[in-house]
Design goal:
This protein is of the alpha+beta class. Helices cover about 35% and strands about 20% of the residues. The protein folds into 2 domains: about 70 residues, no CATH class; about 60 residues, no CATH class.
């Protein structure tokens, strides 16, 4: 059974009073330890697909149909509170411009560790240890040193990997 199964995802966005289909009948499965790339031209719906899966589109201007199954549960049926408990814990997204997604006044390690503290209830010390392990796992060179660096000190490739 896939970890994530997207089935017949269709997203419509309202603009100037009209509903426009921007994602039409997208389906795919992602298994454990599988890497998937979503590729397409600018404006083809890659970001809207991801935002739909994450439940990050405002309800007043979006209609999303289909099924998004995470561990067998349909995310499209979850309320906002339940989605918030999943984001950063079981599901996450790296936005197109990771340099602007990271807070420039906080170290990279602290930003990742805060997510672990908030969503997994880890102590600061355990969160730091796990953050360094995660940075190492995604092949950030010198992970323990990078923990204390600020986003501007990392290359774009390092930031998008973290």
């Amino acid at each position: 059974m896939p970890i994530l199964s997207v089935q017949h995802l269709t997203t419509q966005l309202r603009r100037a009073g009209q509903w426009n289909t921007v994602v039409n009948d997208v389906s795919f499965d992602i298994d454990a330890n599988e890497t998937v790339a979503v590729v397409g031209e600018s404006g083809s719906g890659k970001s809207v697909t991801a935002l739909s899966i994450m439940g990050l589109l405002p309800e007043r201007v979006s209609k999303i149909t289909g099924r998004v199954l995470l561990d067998g549960e349909d995310l499209l049926r979850f309320d906002e509170k339940r989605m918030q408990s999943l984001r950063g814990n079981k599901i996450g997204m790296i936005f197109q411009e990771p340099m602007t997604s990271l807070n420039p006044v906080l170290t990279v390690g602290r930003q990742i560790a805060e997510t672990l503290i908030r969503h997994r209830g880890l102590s600061r010390r355990d969160a730091k240890t796990q953050t360094i392990q995660l940075l190492d796992r995604v092949r950030i060179p010198a992970a323990s040193r990078r923990y204390d660096e600020f986003p501007h000190q990392l290359s774009g490739a390092c930031c998008s990997a973290s």
